[in-house]
Amino acid sequence: MIKRNFVFAASLLLLFSCGRFDKKNSVKGADRIVCVSKQLTELMFALHQGDKIVGVDLTSTYPPEATKLTTVGYHRHLSAEGIISLEPTLVIHQGDIAPESVMPQVEKVGIPVKVYPAANTLDSLKLLVASLGKQFGQDTAAARLNNALDADLAKAAAYVKSFPKQPRVLVIHFGQQRNQYFVMGTRGTADAMLKLAGGVNAADTSSFRDLSPEVIAREQPDIILATDFGWDRLGGDIEKFKELPGIGLTPAAKNGKIYRIEEHDLVYFGPRTGENVLLIAELIHK
Hints:
Elements: H1 2-17, E1 33-36, H2 38-46, E2 53-56, E3 70-71, H3 80-84, E4 90-93, H4 102-108, E5 113-115, H5 122-135, H6 139-160, E6 168-175, E7 180-183, H7 189-196, E8 200-201, E9 209-210, H8 213-219, E10 223-227, H9 228-232, H10 238-242, H11 251-254, E11 258-261, H12 273-284
Parallel strand pairs: 1-2, 1-4, 2-3, 4-5, 6-8, 6-10, 10-11
Antiparallel strand pairs: 6-7, 7-9
């Protein structure tokens, strides 16, 4: 372990001493950005900056172009080596990363790192869009995105008003870090999205909780939304999904109301949030 750390430290020192990441050696206009945030990735593409991104984390799956980029690992399990190997001129993230030692190692070789606030509300999202637009010379595009978001949210709200009943909805997510299915709790963006779509989160906890028959027996959801990775790993077979702990005993399973949803449509606010709220509303009010 000591030898490995010495070799890594020596390689970083060599890169830095050679001026590989010095500003004087960069080509004007040749930005190379590594983005370790699914929310930022979508926003950068929406602001016409996607061509500058050379690497993303595993959860950055929208737009489709992002899935073609080199991945630097799961955002909670990063390595400095993987990021540095892409020779970025900038690394951006929103603080939800690990281990803590990674970004200091990246900065040590002269690569700038910029941290943006997590936009966990619609208002903070619009502020983030405006901030990114100003930084990258896309003020007009940023204003257009925010105006479109407001219009889409208004359209979704009008649709939701036609359904007085609020179904109990449970979100089942597969956590890649722990290789485990979870119930998404009432704290976070997914809960806010469900409320905007006219549903009630059936979870009885504020945080994530391991999926278990006891948990499902208490929550008894009318609808289950399964995020894509956990659904797809079972071959997209609803019968196999019903075999997960307790799922088969729910009203959702008995009535065939288990639906697949893309994780990136549910777990963070972005320029498509209004469209995604309408999508969720259409699913849960069938």
